[in-house]
Structures are given as structure tokens and as C-alpha cells.
Amino acid sequence: MQETPCSVVVRPINNPFEVTMSDTVNQIKESELPFPLTDSDRFVLSQTDDEFKYHNWNELREIIGTNNLAVLKRKPSDLRRYMKWMAETKAAYGSTTSYLMQHRLPKSWGSLPFTPASQIPFADPSDFSVLLNDWPYGLSPTITHIVVWTRTVIPTDPATGDVTDESRKLIHDFVKTFFVDKLGAGGDERVMWFKNWVALQSVRALEHIHVLVKDVDPAVIARWTKEHNYHRQ
């Protein structure tokens, strides 16, 4: 099937990376996009922020439960800024992986390929880092988007790009222990997780999962995302 031509364009004056839907400027070629756009991305880029509908908790539960992750969307202005940031970061650092390793991930991890303390994902706390997502999806205000980065490979099915059944159980158990159990009674109703299929990942070289939490005190989130001594060199 022939791909739909990309309709995203860049305004060449003042800000060469500002993404707009204007038809008065040159179109970006598909190969020049900072990451592949989903159909949802293309639709969002045709909207204004006022037209955008934020994902609520029930909708997210349905999306994650059916593994329909391609429909997750960022707010239009956030998606445009994200595309701009990705393009500028790749120009400055060569890749987003290089930027993340220099500025966001633990210095103790060193360089790729990593040598994890454990070959089992999330088994050793020095092998993962819990951070707020710098570029969250368009979520209702009570929902916080967290990313758990890991230097241990999480096995996926090569045919589908989705996690294997064994990996899914490992992630589920980790999320329960690290997040759900810390929230006490009803915690399982306030936490969800997903891992993008390989085809949907904008940062493919670094393993990570997404965790969404609802109505969680900022102090709790700060404890989850703090830097530990074993993450420092």
C-alpha cells in the first residue's frame, strides 16, 4: 500500500523547525521528519490546542488494554515543539540517544553497549532510572507520565515488535512493586503501564517503558524519580 504523503510543513522564516499546517510553505519530505509520524500525529497537526481532546483515565485504560498504542497523541503545540526539539537535538548531538546519555541517564551506565548488573530487567535498581517524561502525551491534568529507562534489554517478539509474555510479566511485577504497592489500597486503579512497539518508538536505542499514574502526590513522584548514589559515577 502506498504511504500517504506527508502534509507537515516547516516555516522557513525565523524558526526553521517550527511545524505548521500552512500550505504556503514547502512540505517536509518523509525522510526529513525527525521521527515517523502516525496517523494520529498527522491528525493532531491539523488541529489547534483548543480543538484537542485530552486523554482521560478511562480512555487510556481502553487504549492500553487493547494495545492500540498508535492512537496516543500529544497536544498539537507540544507535538510541534517535540518535533522541533528532536530535529535540533539530532543536529546538535547526532542523535537523541547521545543527548539522553549525556544529560538525562545515569553517568554510571557508561556508553553503549551497556553492561547491566543483571540480565533480568528491573532486578537490580542500578540498572533502571525513573524520570518524568519530558514530552508527555496529551493527558488530563491529574495524570502524570513517567518513563522508566533500563540498561537491561527487554525481550520483544521480532515478528510483532511487542513485548514477549515473559517480558510482560516482568514489567507487570516491577510496576506493582515499585509504584502500585507504594500507593496502598486502590493503588492498582491509579497506575497503568505500556511499552511502545518497536515501530512506535522515537528513541529505539534505549530501553524504556511508560508508566501513567493518577492523583498521586507530587512528593511521592519526587521520591520515585530522585537520583540515587548508585546512578552517579
Give the CA-CA distance, first to last residue.
Answer: 50 Å
The ordered string of helix (H) and strand (E) elements is: EEHHHHEEHEEH
Strand content range: 5-15%
Instruction: Give the count of helical stretches.
Output: 6
Topology:
Elements: E1 9-10, E2 19-20, H1 39-44, H2 57-65, H3 76-93, H4 96-103, E3 128-132, E4 143-150, H5 165-178, E5 191-194, E6 207-214, H6 218-225
Antiparallel strand pairs: 1-2, 3-4, 4-6, 5-6
Protein name: N-acetylglucosamine-induced protein 1
GO cellular component, one term: cytoplasm
Organism: Cytospora mali
Name the features.
single chain, about 230 residues, alpha+beta, 4-stranded antiparallel sheet, two-stranded antiparallel sheet, 6 helices, 6 strands, globular, N-acetylglucosamine-induced protein 1, DUF3605
Describe this structure in a few short sentences.
The chain is an alpha+beta fold. 27% of the residues lie in helices and 12% in strands. A hairpin with an 8-residue loop joins strand 1 (9-10) and strand 2 (19-20).
Task: Walk me through this protein's architecture.
The chain is an alpha+beta fold. The chain has one domain (9-231). Helix content is 27%, strand content 12%. The strands form two sheets. It has a four-stranded antiparallel β-sheet, sandwiched between helices. A two-stranded antiparallel sheet has the order 1-2. The radius of gyration is 18 Å and the shape is globular. The termini are far apart.
